[in-house]
Amino acid sequence: MNHDAVRSAYGPRALEYRTAVGSIEHTHPADRELVAAWAAGLKGPVVDAGCGPGHWTRFLAEHGARVEGLDVVSEFVALAAELSPGFPFRVGSLEDLGVEDSSLGGIFAWYSMIHLEPAELPAVLAEFARCLRPGGALLTGFFEGPEVERFPHAMMPAYYWPVDELVSKVTAAGFEVLETHRRADTGRRPHAAVAARRLGRT
Ligand SMILES: C[S@@+](CC[C@H](N)C(=O)[O-])C[C@H]1O[C@@H](n2cnc3c(N)ncnc32)[C@H](O)[C@@H]1O
């Protein structure tokens, strides 16, 4: 992943992102319900990977998760720390979460893998598998589409993924997929989410 491209797309617009879509009030009630239920079942530390302004990080913490927010864009990390004082945020990447093997109970990747080139996704999922303990949980949200297709997202190019194709990538990385969700709201791009657990002996 070209981190400089992500930084130059999001960095100068971090506050704009927060104002337009990046607060918990902007999120869908069904997503809040899903994420709250997911948080309740976590065992061990959690990383919000690609946390943006940190609203989900805070939400996860408020729902019992021991969570750290991580983003490759330093402006987001600074903004998140300002908006949620006392909550931990740091600069880091999806490709290198900077934690020990099998040390995490959960990884939350909400619309943060959407900018990856399809060929880059397996390496990120392999990194998630490395970091999660067996049984550890992954929850990811993304734009759903009938095929893997690039489109001009407002911040930088992104990809639609069919749920089945994302499921097969997640499965190939050593996960068991537990749940999938889809939603199509008028005037919005179709949304999907996949919840999975890291395979292996617990
Ligand atoms: C569409 S925003 C989603 C932000 C937040 N998760 C949310 O739901 O509002 C995508 C986020 O992923 C981050 N991101 C994209 N590629 C990344 C990478 N390779 N490593 C870490 N963060 C990345 C961006 O900086 C941005 O904060």
Sheet with the most strands: spatial strand order = 3-2-1-4-5-9-8
| Mean pLDDT rating | 96
CATH topology: Rossmann fold
Identify the CATH homologous superfamily. Vaccinia Virus protein VP39
Pick out its properties.
202 residues; alpha/beta; Rossmann fold; binds S-adenosylmethionine
What does this structure look like?
The chain is α/β, with parallel strands linked by helices. It has a single domain (3-21, 29-198), classed as Rossmann fold (3-Layer(aba) Sandwich), CATH 3.40.50. It is 33% helix and 27% strand. It has seven helices and nine strands; from the N terminus they run H-H-H-E-H-E-H-E-E-H-E-E-E-H-E-E. It has helices spanning 3-10, 14-20, 29-40, 55-62, 74-83, 121-131, 163-172, and strands at 46-49, 67-71, 89-91, 104-110, 132-143, 149-151, 158-160, 175-183, 191-198. The strands form two sheets. It has a seven-stranded mixed β-sheet, with helices on both faces. A hairpin with a 7-residue loop joins strand 8 (175-183) and strand 9 (191-198). The protein is globular and about 45 Å long. The termini are far apart. The relative contact order is 0.15. The protein binds S-adenosylmethionine (SAM).
